[in-house]
Design goal:
Largest sheet: 3 strands, antiparallel
Number of domains: 3
Number of helices: 13
Shape: elongated
Structural class: alpha+beta
Order of helices and strands: EEEEHHEEHHEEEEEEHHEHEHHHEHHHEE
Distance between the termini: 49 Å
Helix content: 25-40%
Strand order of the largest sheet: 6-5-15
Length: 405
């Protein structure tokens, strides 16, 4: 990953940043060292962060303008496709990323490490590019006058300082109000145990499922006899041996030194760790492929809606408000909007029933025109009466009205 500094490209390998800003990791009781970098080696962590980042990135982003007619309290909304910040956010944030990739990367880092920043390349007071800084290469601190200062460390061991007005800063939940909490750090024990369980199972699979153990004899063996027995047993019944049925004589006994998966309740523990990781990221288990046997198609659909509302919803609000502050500068009448309607749509039957009511089915006045419905379905407008609201059978006297009024 690279960003621009003084008209030069500085490339920073993520591995070289391992010791910066706490990126080196945190110890756990299971003996695993956990950091945002290696936590994604756990599939549940990788999937949880992806489902948040990809969910937000796939929503259309737009700059909206809100105006009011004289004497009216109802806002008139318009998508400002001609606004330069609309193109920046929805099409080309920089020369090497699409809008999807930029938003995905920012939210992915924020979900894992608590925050993400992008330096604003500003020319004559207008933002031309958003240049994301690799996770672990920056820190944020609050000054004595309550302003925030961002330190960015470069690969050549130099650094620069930026104030909040020079960066786009996205952060997650916070205790101090300016620095996001790392979900990986807070869930390090659950993630560490999951990694330990994976390693344990991998070692067992690597040994052909053959546990280690002790060959015990009632009599005393000479040193050379013990060594020969050990090598013979390892060659025949060890990880790469032929296996088969062992026949022991001379009152010899084999005692295993490894717990079986049944003894350790491996499957149950693994399932519990997936759920613990999902809790840390506030992601429903079904969204990281951990389905409950009691789930049905109907309940799964409600789970998906809950995911959009309760998991993605806060991230949507964080993104929109950060853009309003750092990209639009709280410009009067303008705001950034992420359109989550596509994620909340039901099946075709539900959509048909909704649009039928929106067009005035059942006798009630319509609140959408045919052209508005066609636009949401990706169809071209027909014009004419298709752009008029139906008064509905219950209000025939009012007649049809134009949908733009």
């Amino acid at each position: 990953m690279a960003w621009f500094r003084k008209n030069a490209v500085v490339t920073v390998a993520l591995e070289t940043l391992a010791g910066v800003a706490g990126w080196i990791g945190w110890g756990t009781a299971s003996g695993q060292t956990i950091s945002p970098q290696n936590a994604i080696d756990v599939p549940a962590v990788f999937c949880a962060a992806r489902v948040i980042a990809e969910g937000l990135a796939q929503m259309p982003v737009r700059v909206m303008e809100e105006t009011y007619s004289e004497g009216s309290d109802q806002p008139l909304l318009k998508i400002r496709r001609d606004h330069p910040m609309h193109r920046l956010l929805s099409q080309k944030p920089n020369d090497w990323q699409t809008s999807f990739e930029f938003r995905e990367g920012m939210v992915f880092n924020a979900a894992l490490a608590g925050g993400a920043i992008a330096i604003k390349n500003t020319v004559q007071g207008q933002i031309k590019e958003l240049l994301p800084v690799p996770a672990g290469a920056w820190t944020v601190e609050q000054m004595s006058d309550w302003t925030l200062r961002i330190r960015v460390d470069y690969a050549d061991k130099t650094h620069d300082y930026f104030d909040l007005g020079q960066v786009f800063y996205l952060r997650g939940p916070s205790l101090d109000g300016f620095k996001g909490l790392s979900a990986v750090r807070l869930a390090r024990e659950a993630i560490g145990l999951s990694k330990a369980l994976e390693k344990q199972q991998a070692r067992l699979a690597g040994s052909g499922g053959k546990p280690s153990g002790v060959l015990a004899f009632t009599g005393t063996l000479k040193p050379e006899t013990r060594e020969k027995l050990r090598e013979t047993w390892k060659e025949r019944y060890g990880p790469n041996g032929e296996g088969g049925i062992a026949i022991l004589d001379g009152d010899a006994k084999f005692q295993t030194m490894t717990m079986t998966n049944v003894d350790a309740q491996y499957i149950e523990t693994r399932r519990q760790q997936i759920e613990e990781i999902a809790r840390a990221f506030r992601v429903l288990p079904i969204m990281i492929m951990q389905a409950d046997k009691a789930s049905t198609f109907a309940s799964a659909e409600q789970f998906f809606r809950m995911h959009v509302i309760h998991c993605l919803g806060p991230w949507i609000e964080r993104w929109e408000q950060a853009c309003n502050r750092d990209i639009l500068g709280h410009a009067e009448g303008l705001y950034v909007d992420l359109d989550e309607r596509n994620l909340l749509r039901g099946d075709f039957k539900d959509q048909a029933e909704y649009y039928a009511k929106a067009l005035g089915a059942g006798g009630t006045p319509a609140w959408m025109t045919q052209d508005e419905v066609r636009a949401e379905c990706g169809l071209n407008p027909m014009g004419g009466t298709a752009n008029q609201l139906s008064a509905g059978a219950m209000n025939k006297a009012s007649g049809a009205s134009n949908g733009t009024n």
